[in-house]
Design brief:
By secondary structure, the protein is α+β, with helices and mostly antiparallel strands. It has a domain of about 130 residues: 2-Layer Sandwich (Dihydrodipicolinate Reductase, domain 2). Helices cover about 30% and strands about 20% of the residues. It is built from 7 helices and 10 strands. The strands form 4 sheets. The protein has a 4-stranded antiparallel beta sheet. The radius of gyration is 22 Å and the shape is globular. The N and C termini lie far apart (about 50 Å). About 5% of the residues have low confidence.
Length: about 230
Amino acid sequence: MAVHDLDMTRFLAGEDPLEILAVGSCHIDKSIQDLPGSEAFDTASCIVRYPNGVNAMVDVCRQSSYGYDQRAEVLGTSGMIATDNVYPNTAKIYKNDFTGNADMPFDFFLSRYFEAYVTETEAFCKSLVEDSAVPCTGIDGLIALVMSLAADKSAAEGRWVKFSEIIEQVYCNSPTECSLLVDSDVFPDGYKPTKSLKELENLVVPDVDQQKQGGSFMDKFKEMVGLN
């Protein structure tokens, strides 16, 4: 349940992660505690190790009684950057028995991240019109998957898990179709497992953006309709 949070730590760290330690428990909905793996957790914590001694800590819970709570802090040697929750307005109340925001934070991700959805839609449309690469690649998505699977394994086995352990089980037969092979050494030529996140480009075939040749989408469209 923390795949987006783990992905965000990689974005903030600006590096590929090395290993993870994860724990989880069930405190809110006891009906899920018999589900397999991390599906039985409604509360979890992760520590992700990055190069140069950088550590990222993630705390997640399926319930927040005070609104949609998603905050981030980056603490460095020269200071700190923090992002807070987003509220419908900036009004605050000051009374002898209460001081704080007049409203609860936005309680749904579509409201909270409205501008982000608009921005990513614009970027996607721009890449279509200009026939250019999208900002987020398939490798970014694959690494987020590897991080979440490693967290699962860590919680189940109670130990630090290196991401290389998971990467060695990833098999991609196309840029958009990847699966996991457990206890199997059968990899076709061109899809050999790797032990480094930085070598993931060697695991999958070149993506569409890398294979593009010729002009842009608009150039091809003009040629097709006879405008050139």
